[in-house]
Amino acid sequence: MKVAVIGAGSIGGLMGAALARGGTATHLLARGEHLKAIRQNGLRIITDEDTWSVQVPCTDDPQDIGPTDFVILGVKSYAYSSIGDLLEPLLHERTAVVPAQNGIPWWYFHGHGGPYDGRRIESVDPGGSVSAVIAAHRVIGCVVYPAAVMTAPGLIHHVEGRRFGIGEPDGTKSERCQRFAAALNAGGMKCSIDSRIRDQIWVKLMGNATFNPLSALTLATMAEICRFPLTRDLVAEMMRETVAIATSLDCEVPVSIERRLAGAERVGEHRTSMLQDLEAGRQMEIEALLGAVVELADLTGVDARRLRTVYAAVSLLATETRRYALPGVRQENERGTTSTRRTS
């Protein structure tokens, strides 16, 4: 079994390191100082308990790797349409692609069944640009729960969590899912196969669609948003709208809003990935986390006025930071291969 990781930042790097530690032939695609550090010192993972490292082949040229059995996408979802030149040399006829992303994926309605089966979501697949690069039949859905951040070239701080949920879009428990889960588990992660992977997507979205944009707009941590009564109430209302959209699409969200808020507050003074991107001058991942949710509300006729309002505000924030080149704010490079810490 051979695996390649496109975008060996926080989550992509953590998954690649775990696979390599478990004995899977793993190859990383990285650039610049990160590439140099991995080649010299291996990929190092820091946890609260210890530090471990793996020597793993790393390159900036996918031709050095060749066809693989699995490709993990560790880049942000807005970069998917631009990675064709990186992805193509890694594919053979049966290569599976595992997008380690937050939010609504472009493949959401592939294998969905029902009235929306095969429908394209414009927010995350504008003009079919992502579908043209990544064929939906290759996709294994993946929901990421660990929190990690790349603190220096070649160095990833694994903050918490080892759980990954994967699943086929059509709900089958395929042999390729079993192989991938076993390999990730062998490296110390907890990867389970879910026949209803979209349910997990919506559970994660309860936090991503609310705390991420609000943190960028307010510059507040998750705990600060929870402690301030007005924003706590706003998050709760946005979560209710999110659950209503999920329910309209025949998904089950088995986590209560209060439990979700309590969990977010326990995370503490954590700045979400969207806030980290804003502060670092990277493009914010707005469409997958919120824009697509609003689009699905329009599709299903669900009232999502609060989600829509916050989406409008954070979209304007992104536009203005580009327009005025605010201090410390710049656009992510074209391929967007640096990923940041994932949040609950």
Mind explaining what this structure looks like?
The chain is of the alpha/beta class. The chain folds into 2 domains: 2-195, 3-Layer(aba) Sandwich (Rossmann fold); 199-324, N-(1-d-carboxylethyl)-l-norvaline Dehydrogenase, domain 2, CATH 1.10.1040. The protein is 41% helix and 15% strand. The chain contains 11 helices and 12 strands. It has a 5-stranded parallel sheet. Strands 4-3-10-9 form a 4-stranded mixed sheet. Strands 8-11-12 form a 3-stranded mixed sheet, sandwiched between helices. Helix 1 links the parallel strand 1 (2-6) and strand 2. It starts with a strand and ends in a 20-residue tail after the last helix. The model is unreliable at 328-344 (pLDDT under 50).
Question: How are the strands of the largest sheet arranged?
Answer: 5-2-1-6-7
CATH superfamily of the largest domain: NAD(P)-binding Rossmann-like Domain
Beta-strand fraction estimate:
15-25%
- Mean pLDDT across the residues is 92
Task: Give the biggest beta sheet.
Answer: 5 strands, parallel
- What is the H/E order? EHEHEEEEHEEEEEHEHHHHHHH
The total tally of domains equals 2
Mind telling me the CATH class of the largest domain?
Answer: Alpha Beta
- What spatial form do the alpha-carbon principal axes imply? globular
How many beta strands in the DSSP annotation? 12
